[in-house]
Amino acid sequence: MEHNKRQGRVIPRIYLVSSGEEKSENCSRLMTQLSLLPHPFPCIVQIREKQLNTKELLRVALQIKALALSKETIIIINERLDVALAASLDGIHLPESGCTPAILRPLAPKMLFGCSVHSLEALRNAEESGADYLLFGPVFETPSKRAYGPPQGLQLLGRISHSTSLPVFALGGITPENAAYCMAEGAYGIAALSIFQETTRLVDTIERFYNIVTP
After folding, report:
1. d(CA 193, CA 30)
2. Are 157 and 123 in contact (CB under 8 A)?
3. The CATH number of the domain where 33 resides is what?
4. How many Å apart are CA 118 and CA 58, to the nearest integer?
5. What is the pTM of this model?
6. Which end of the chain has less Cβ packing within 10 Å, N or C?
7. How far apart are the first and last CA of the chain?
8. Chain segment 33-83, per-residue pLDDT in tens
9. Is 47:65 a contact under the CB 8 Å cutoff?
10. Which stretches within 10-53 are classed as H helix?
11. Neighbours of 16 (CB within 10 A)
């Protein structure tokens, strides 16, 4: 299987994580972001709104599926296989301490399964369980991850990236100014949350990232 293809899908190299702060199923901030996504630059979009209940999450997922996004854009949701199946999403993202792809894949064999990893041991566990891609971080200092400890750094990103054939996304404090360092360490692409919240600069930010991560 090609490095950038999983489950028959080409995996985009830009990964947008939702704010985790939406107050209701309207998700106005996320919907604004997605309405601005430039079609030439497909993304992975992760719905990460843990505070919403199941009914609200399903409504969000259905609203996103109804948007006129690039056909190469991939929509995933954090952990909630039930919502992903009900809304016909493209995949599931699983935390390091969560359920494994091996357990869930029989229920959704055509979906993408991504895993967060923070160590080489977690990388091996994700590989063995059948992950399709990996999310590693935080690479750099970032307020959203400060409570979880210091940044992991570029060196460990490089060790992770060169120890697997799976696509590895660098997460945590990623900007157009430092993204090239992540790619030089072997990252497949970049993932971010905060920088994509600046909707007035969203198109320019994605274009800049695309020019950096595209081989």
Report:
1. 11
2. no
3. 3.20.20.70
4. 29
5. 0.94
6. C
7. 18
8. 999 999 999 999 999 999 999 999 999 999 999 998 999 999 999 999 999
9. no
10. 28-36
11. 21
